Predict the structure.
Amino acid sequence: MFVDGRVILICERYFQRLLVLDDLPRQAWEKLARMLRGYLKMPYPLKPGNRIEIQQINNHPAATSPYAGALLKTGFEKDGAKLVLWPSAIAGLD
């Protein structure tokens, strides 16, 4: 993800690992949420699963990351050490 020409977020392995390179403004979290919701709405052959499971953020368990709160506000749920976004969480959004 880029903001003002700078890389501020890197997603790996279908969003399993996130690397946050800079403080993300609220607008960047909203943009990420729209991107992830769009990904879940894609047809199955274009995506490997029916949900997004973030396992790590900056090499720490996603659910205990300082960034977990921002993701929980976008529809993610805690599942042990992971954060999971289910298609049912985005129904009717956007």
User: Anything to note?
Assistant: The chain is about 25% helix and 30% strand. The beta strands are 2-3, 6-7, 9-12, 17-20, 52-54, 56-57, 60-61, 77-79, 82-85. The longest strand covers residues 9-12.
